[in-house]
Amino acid sequence: MKPFQYLLLAYLFFGNIPPTLSQDVFAVQGLCIAAPQPGSLDEFIDFAKKELAPNGINTLVLRVDYRYEYDSRPELRGENALSKEQVKKLVSGCKEVGIEIIPQVNLLGHQSWHSKATKLLELYPEFDETPNIKLPENYEWPNEDGLYCKSYCPLHPDVHEVVFDLVDEIVEVFEAKAFHAGMDEVFYLAHEDCPRCHGRDPAKLFADEVRKIRNHLAQNKIRLWIWGDRLIDGAETGIGMWEASMNNTARAIDMIPKDVVISDWHYERADPTPAYFATKGFDVVACPWRIPEVAKKQVEMMADFKANSIKKMADRYLGVMHTYWSSAERFMEAYKDPSHTLDEKGRSPVLTFRAMTAAIQEKEKN
């Protein structure tokens, strides 16, 4: 049997054993969400104090990207950017209620969305891994180019000088102890269009980029977080091309430093891949999105893993983090709407968040 099959059997065997955990179920009880717009900053701080913290949320991964008024690279300021003073107000408000903010700027992948490039590739098109693939006027998936999101070329000699300016500034203004680099759904890597990357090992390219970012952050004792999909073999596990890798990056899991925190997102099932990351030596956080039952099962799974592991392994199961892929404003609106219900497919990110926090609170009672 292969290692991943052993993990599946272990989870099936231990899955019904009731956990015996302390009052603090998880070190990380998180929410990943877009940074609020300036006009709703006060509302968001109030929401964090009155709703997030009382429901156990202690970690906010805030997707900032180019929505900050960068001084180091003012050309990369996006629309509705937060000022330094506004960020400080947000940080202070969250600290008051014990919420740690981990800022995110997408690195490597997600340098475009549908028909629009991010500020980085818009202003520095020379960084594009696939310059010959043009963004269509009307985006559709699937498409002949295999275009989902563009990547920057990790071997371009000037790219890190630019992106590390952003990273350093955003970490400093958020007074952060950790930084989330994204790095999920990187479909363009070692592409034939790229004169630097073509023909190279995608796993090594990916691992080298993780290591470069990690080492840069470590100089200031900042810990790197990334999404975990590129480190899972999509064919071996059957998980496929979105929540796992089908472009030969999975072997990078054995090439990157073990102090990187893995955000292991699975949205249709509670796949037991946190055990895979933990046995490889990584701290891991399970991440749901829009199906309440999946969130409940992920809480149960992570609690089971912790309860049935020796301390060295148990400590690696950091917890759970809900992911929300629209604006903070839309999340707050739906959260406060008493008529909000599941859609026709039984999905709701907000109700999934509520299911996750309720499941954690239930564990804390038992």
Automatic annotation (TrEMBL):
Glycoside hydrolase family 20 catalytic domain residues: 78-289
InterPro entries per the UniProt record, alphabetical: GH, Glyco_hydro_20_cat, HEXDC-like
Protein's GO biological process: carbohydrate metabolic process
One example GO MF annotation: beta-N-acetylhexosaminidase activity
UniProt-listed PANTHER family: BCDNA.GH04120 (PTHR21040)
Family from the record: Belongs to the glycosyl hydrolase 20 family.
Protein name, per record: Glycoside hydrolase
